[in-house]
Amino acid sequence: MGQTYACIDGRLRTFIEEQRIFFTATAPLDGDGTVNLSPKGISGSFAVIDGLTVAYLDFAGSNAETIAHLRENGRITLMWCAFQGPPNIVRVHGHGEAVFRDDPRFTGLLQHFTGPDHSLHGLRAIIVVTAELIRDTCGFAVPHMAYEDDRTLHARRFEREDDSSLSAYFEKKEHVATSIDGLPGLPLPLPPLAGADHGNRPE
Fold first, then answer.
1. CATH code (residue 51)
2. In a domain, 88, yes or no
3. Which end of the chain is more exposed for a tag (fewer CB within 10 A), N or C?
4. Beta strands of 82-124 (E only): which ranges?
5. Rg for the chain (alpha carbons), in Å?
6. HEC sequence for 155-186
7. Nearest Cα to 46, choosing from 75, 19, 6?
8. How far, in Å, CA of 52 to CA of 150, rounded?
9. pLDDT (tens digit, 9 = 90+) per residue, 142-186?
């Protein structure tokens, strides 16, 4: 039987923070619009801010559907599955906001994340989610799968991009500044990332 939680703490928080991958789901208000579902799995890119607030780092990619949907209506669901250990599925339904690199809150939010240099991945925003409903379900049908290692392809692709070239990359992509359904996506040109020194990375 599923259980509803008042906040993210204790064993629930431990379970969420131990998972190597989670999924995000958003949709536009238009009933004919495109529902978006995305996997997120770069180590250290997710953080529990407090009992009702979580956040994750939004990196360079060929679209910005989540950002576009959040700018329009804010609805978002995050989901974690137990692929190892006792079966479990946790969903956080809530309201999300994309905090962009020129937002005064950006630097403070970034302090919640640990791990590798996330600027190597073309960091473009921080998605902050306020939980409105927190539930788990059994997960009995989720298969056992073993984690092997993080992929290095994303960091290798974007580690030598500076703010200018990263912005140019986004401008070339059809569905970054504008979503599949024509909604406003990532604001361009991309603001500089405070404290980042992309131009001096070794070749």
1. 2.30.110.10
2. yes
3. C
4. 89-100
5. 17
6. HHHHCCCCHHHHHHHHHHCCECCECCCCCECC
7. 19
8. 28
9. 999 999 999 999 999 999 999 999 999 999 999 999 999 999 999
